[in-house]
Design brief:
2 copies of one chain form a homodimer. Chain A is built from 10 helices and 15 strands. At the A-B interface, strand 3, helix 4, helix 7, strand 6 and strand 7 of A face helix 1, helix 8, strand 6, strand 7 and helix 9 of B.
Chain lengths: 248, 248
DNA sequence: CGTAAGAATGCATTTTTTTGCAATAATATA
DNA sequence: TATATTATTGCAAAAAAATGCATTCTTACG
């Protein structure tokens, strides 16, 4: 059995049964547990499943247990504060999902009057807490990992919109490869949002800068503003400033 | 059972029942109480639950904020348990919003394979916790009070669906006036859902029975099943049984 | 065709994690 | 307070993961 074939089999199995054991797979496919472990490691790196001691769990099963704590929370709060200043009364704002976006939602001033459009359920619930913000949810199937709606319906709805501003929670940003991500469905939604907006803002914690994932969302040129927790004059940001991005 | 899987199970259990005992879990999962205790400690470290002597409490129950907010919680849990038995594998299920529906979402068995369609953001997030349930959100403007999507877009999407089952969280039910409610926009959505479903189930706590609100959602005839926390032979329910409703 | 570079795999060894047990301490409850 | 239940701690056995290395299999290329 080829490596790719084996990994596809493992993935199928884990999605069907919600969990797999190294020992079972080893017997079933007739390779050593080491190989299975290496496969699981790889699949986990690609974000296809969740590795656990002794085996792995399907991503949808794992999301039951709502991903522990927010990583790098303080930095994200800082980014949210900066980003919030970009929103003016009366604006139509598109946002993706992710923990940084949630922090942005929390950081919005109480007196802001604006319309927020999103496919992220947790973000929508946060926006609802603000008395003067109108919330519009994009409907479609909900992706378990990201808790945002994805699919053709969602994308066609997004294309009908012209927003003033789009906030993109960023997984990886690179001066050469632009904005990249690893979930195909989520990428499609992000693409549509970026196309439907006049201005695009990338919210990026410093450690994601100069990294790349497998699927491209957009070129660097498509991004207007980059918000990080770093001061504007940080070494890391200079290449992006040179390429014409506004950095906050 | 893998460690991670076990912890997910514990978390599910504690969120469903509001509390768990080390001794129960130990028997149920078949590991020592020491292991359970260590799991609870870990989950507590991650802030997913509150550890207590002899077991643990759900975070939402412990923080008076959330617990006190849900009125008549125990009755609603009882209703949810009964209602959950109506759902079979492969079904398409439409649901409204409301606290009883949230309890239903929590009470769904882990191994249920079904598709849930809703405009309620909190309900959708609950459904997501079930690995084998597909969640579809109806998009539109979100109503601040009810946290469900309302409006023409939502209604036209609902009309395109034909579901097997529709669960309606009920505000007022009366043998003469049928199902009534007091929020015009929410009523429009409920109407559409009822029309789009083969079977309609009303989830109603006893104190809402024989009460009415200002706007009619549907006649009693449109409802197939009535689920309350009362035993089937309760005096209060007899008029409804006479009128042909199935009572659980 | 043949050979060299690189990837994939299994095996042995070391390290880490998980788990149950026992002894002791802390805590609840009658 | 006394007693039973629950927690904590240290420890050891078992299981699993990581690591380095040798062997086999693929692939690329002269």
């Amino acid at each position: 059995m080829l490596k790719t074939e084996r990994q596809a089999f493992i993935l199928h199995k884990v999605n069907l049964h919600n969990r797999v054991l190294c020992s079972d797979l080893s017997l079933e496919i007739n390779v050593s547990e080491d190989t299975i472990r290496r496969d699981l490691q790889e699949l986990s790196d690609y974000g296809k499943l969740i590795k656990a001691h002794g085996g792995a769990l399907s991503k949808s099963f794992y999301s039951t247990f709502n991903a522990s704590k927010v990583y790098s929370l303080e930095n994200k709060k800082c980014i949210a504060q900066k980003a919030a200043t970009l929103i003016k009364d009366g604006m139509f704002v598109l946002t993706t999902g992710g923990t940084t976006i949630i922090e942005l939602a929390k950081a919005l001033p109480q007196n802001l009057h604006a319309t927020f459009i999103t496919g992220s359920l947790p973000a929508a619930l946060e926006y609802l807490h603000h008395p003067n913000i109108e919330v519009i949810v994009i409907g479609d199937k909900v992706s378990k990992n990201s808790q945002i709606t994805v699919g053709g319906e969602a994308i066609s709805k997004i294309k009908q919109i012209k927003a003033d501003l789009c906030f993109v929670g960023t997984n990886a940003l690179d001066a050469e490869y632009g904005l990249t991500d690893n979930d195909w469905e989520v990428v499609q939604v992000k693409k549509a949002m970026i196309e439907s907006s006049v201005k695009v803002v990338s919210l990026t914690i410093a450690e994601k800068i100069n990294t790349r994932q497998r699927i491209q969302v957009c070129d660097l040129q498509a991004i207007d503003v980059l918000v990080t927790e770093l001061p504007t004059d940080a070494e890391l940001l200079q290449p992006y400033i040179k390429k014409g991005l506004i950095v906050l």
